[in-house]
Amino acid sequence: MRIATWNVNSVKQRLPRLLPWLDQRQPDVVCLQETKLADGAFTELLGEPLGARGYQIAVYGEARWNGVAILSRAGLDDVVAGLPDGPGFPHPEARTIAATCGGVRVHSVYVPNGRTPGSDHYRYKLTWLAALRDVVGAGPDAVIVCGDMNIAPTDADVFDPLAYAGHTHVTPPERAALAELQALGLRDVVRDRWPGERVFTYWDYRAGMFHKDLGMRIDLALASAPVAGRVRAAWVDRHARKGTGPSDHAPVIVDLDEAPDGDIGPVVPPPSAPAVRPGTAKLPQSP
Questions:
Q1: Which secondary structure element, helix H or strand E, spans residue 180, and what is its range?
Q2: How far is Cα 127 from Cα 173, in angstroms, rounded to an integer?
Q3: Sign of CA pseudo-dihedral 243, 246, 248, 251
Q4: pLDDT digits (tens, 9 = 90+) for 79-131
Q5: d(C-alpha 172, C-alpha 180), whole Å
Q6: What is the DSSP letter of 210?
Q7: Which of 3, 8, 194, 240 could form a Cys-Cys staple with 14, CB 3.0–4.6 A?
Q8: Per-residue CA distances from 199 to 38, 206, 209 (Å)
Q9: What's the first-to-final CA gap in the chain, in angstroms?
């Protein structure tokens, strides 16, 4: 079973790329984030072309913001949208949906950004992650949590830790919240498979960050032992970030039981830009 996760940054804008990508990569289960469509609009736009490809659809969306979905041709049972008793800001946001696909409990998650350390948005992010941990911990043993975590697990997951000083995504409380989720027994399957490699999944649209390979790894696939033990390949489809009209995120692909394309990671195709020296590059929003 091939499971993929992709923050598409507007499924409507990404439609010319999403459908050909599905045809090329042939994932059995797809977790989408930042769909930015209400449920009815998503189904109206994608119901027919996805159905023709054999996908069932579970969606939890909002107009203009957030939004998550699971596409599956491996079954789609026990769908739960949102976090029961989870925090709102001030109202619940469309940031997680779960379903059982091929015997695996699949969570598609779009973790709040946090904006600024210490802000109300930041505190909401930490509370939301704690609620996610409770939900995943109460679920079945065979589980995978996929999506845009908006957290780089370690300094090795950003192009330069100095460039991110004072920003969200890298602070100790965020990383601790992610570690508490993983403490349920979830393995970071991309990092487990490629422990010493430079791997990014997100590059800012501005300042040529993608072409310079100045990115961060914030899109993760976290699998419990029964699922992690089945992983045969785990990689980032960097090709989907190239070309015209891409998302600012690349998909992450995990193959269970067999790897149709081989163990080709961690990033396909590999970047051509070398790693920068610490302190020589800044984030586009930095002064």
A1: helix 172-182
A2: 11
A3: negative
A4: 999 999 899 999 999 999 999 999 999 999 999 999 999 999 999 999 999 99
A5: 12
A6: T
A7: 8
A8: 32, 19, 14
A9: 45
